[in-house]
Design a protein that fits this description.
This protein is mainly alpha-helical and about 90 residues long. The chain has a domain of about 45 residues. Helices cover about 55% and strands about 10% of the residues. It is built from four helices and two strands. A two-stranded antiparallel sheet has the order 1-2. A hairpin with a 4-residue loop joins strand 1 and strand 2. It is globular.
């Protein structure tokens, strides 16, 4: 996990009793480093659909649409359909 911080040049590692988590808190790093990597090396399976939805939300935020009620409603709708909310 530490090699992710080194490879991407961003993020932090957090340890708990049950897990180790890699977190990227900087929006620029997320949109300019992490998302392009996974677009180049796609996730397979149903998680690809969640990744695509996550990218849609990131684009809305990049365009500052999250600052409007309509944009927030769009993000909430996307979020509601991700993971276990997705209809297969």
């Amino acid at each position: 996990m530490r090699s992710l911080v080194s490879y991407f040049g961003c993020g932090n590692i957090y340890f708990s009793r049950e897990s180790v988590n890699y977190c990227v808190d900087n929006f620029f790093d997320l949109t300019e480093k992490i998302l392009p990597f996974y677009k180049k090396h796609p996730i397979t399976g149903v998680k690809f659909l969640d990744f695509s939805d996550f990218c849609r939300v990131a684009l809305l935020m990049k365009e500052n649409k999250h600052l409007t009620q309509l944009g927030l409603d769009q993000i909430r709708q996307i979020k509601a359909c991700m993971n276990y909310g997705r209809l297969y």
